[in-house]
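In this section we walk through a basic example: taking a raw amino acid sequence and producing a predicted 3D structure, encoded as discrete structure tokens. The instruction is simple. Fold the sequence below.
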Amino acid sequence: MRILVVDDHELVRKGICSLLASDPRLTVCGEAMDGREAVKKTKELRPDVVIMDISMPNMNGIEATREIKSSDSDAEIVIVSQHSAPEMVRQAFNAGARGYVMKSSISRDLLEAIGKVSRQEPFVKVDGHSDQKSELDPQEILKRNGEIEKALRESEERFRSAMNNMAEGLYMVDSEGLATYVNPSAEKMFGWSAAELLGKKVHDITHYKHPDGSPFPAADCPGLQVLERGIELRDHEDVFIRKDGSFFPVVISASPMKSGGAVTGVVVCFRDDTKRRLSVQTLEAQIVERTRQLERASEKLRELSVKLLQTQDEERRRIARELHDGVGQLLAAMSMNISLLESERSKLSPASLKAVESNLKLIEDAGQEIRTMSHLLHPPLLDEVGLDSALRWYVDGFAERSKISVDLQLSPGFSDGLPRDFALSLFRIVQECLTNIHRHSGSLSAFVAVERSANEISLTVSDHGRGIPADLRGRIASGESSGVGFRGMRERIRQFGGRLDVSSDENGTQVLAVLPFAPSKDKSAKAGTEASGDVALVDEGGGSEIIEEEPRTEPATILCIDDETAGLMPRRLLLESAGYRVIEARSGLEGIRLFQSEKVDAVILDYWMSGMKGTQVASELKRIKPGVPIIVLSGMMELPGEAAGLVDEWMIKGSTRAEQLLNSISTLIEKRRE
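The resulting token sequence is shown next.
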């Protein structure tokens, strides 16, 4: 037998369910907390018996019993209540209940009551006296009815007095929408008297059009829909019309009036909402203005943040350049000078020779440290040969230093046409992510991938470490992370209109950066184009033929091109000590002019110079005189792709010994003369 338990007290419901569980023939098919829910669940669950409390919110048990019995439900109803008055029993049975059990005797009488009502037998036991036939004393009932009627009249009078003195407007309509009562507050707000409204459709007088003048059909009126649906309307914002035709905003609530389970009318209560809405509008305007101010301040802060990052990058570049061109060149000069002592080996004592060799090794190590530090601050490859080579160089160095295996996957040609600041941002994001992996993840491997589509570039960096802690993940997702790393990455991406997504769990972390990028249609604006101030390298009169030179006996002339005096001086001393004639140029353009005006046998060229890259200078020199050998000195370990075919010898600054440079020059000059 299926039982539906209805009571607004959870403890009572649980107690009844526990009692029913003791009888294997009974099954609780559902629970409800008020009469309205009981009616709904009776239709849905179709129980055999409904155990119903009387005093409940929204709809009491008597009304719910009446609605259930007026429907097509076959469920029998047992009322459980604390009320022992015979009138209450009569009302319950008149509504359609077949059993009535006091809550104080549920444990004793409920199972018996269920058994009897399931056989369609009545069951009543009040105050310990059974009245299974529900035969109450008629005189007692009449007496009590008179008392009830009197109490109802007094209650109605009190209710009407309360309504008349309400500050809120209130009116009642019948099932046809006709006004049956209008309180003084409603009269004052409408401008219509109660006599003018009673018996008329209130909607057609106070609610028939919208503020824009368009019609408002009665079928769309939320208050009248309560008549059809029988569902309360609470705190609905609307607009009413006064007698003079003006509109005023209101907040309305409407409740259905019912009799015998049928809706017979609606009670509508409303209040003038003009002041509140004006206050809200004023507050909203203030909020909008304050939001604009905050947005402007945020925009300025973002601009400042971007400028700070750019300034930081420029300062890193400056420091890197000073390390490379200052300290690095001095170390290179020291190395060359000390190398000259090797020609004096026979004159040195073993201890002195050992000290010289040790100093050379220390200078080489210091030079290597300076180069590494300089490249980490600002990788020269980024400006000289593009992001592709810079990333490969950095990832290889990172893997060697950290002992973390890095799988690098780069989309072919992804760095073509990237502006310098765009490429630098991608490089810094990779640098920051790999640094975080090394410091925090504990992962032994990492993955870096860059993909480029028609309209965007996506960068993915992931690991298989311990993941980001949950509390920090939340702050990162909301943009509130206190770490400068993620904030810096977000600012770098925001300036290009991109997005940064971070996902992490106990299996690792993935950082995804997506940046929109539309390459320039002007093919002349390629990556690698130098800063403003570029000029034609030479005029067309330079020629590109190989000039046959007559044999000569004078010393070979070496052209040294370097924008730093610290690099030129030791080179000139070394070459002159070996019997060469040396001419110097402190810029690429000056070097090209000297190359055209002088008979040059070989060129020693610095790769990293301001104004023009070494590869640009080498390209122009080869165009003028292809046969003249060119030696390039650089801090990079590997020959970049753009130097292929232009450079005859690639040497590493600081690590190249003096005799190695001299041997290379001699070999290249002899080969040319042959």
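Looking at the output, two observations stand out. The first helix runs from residue 10 to 21. The chain has a mean pLDDT of 80. In the next section we compare this with other chains.
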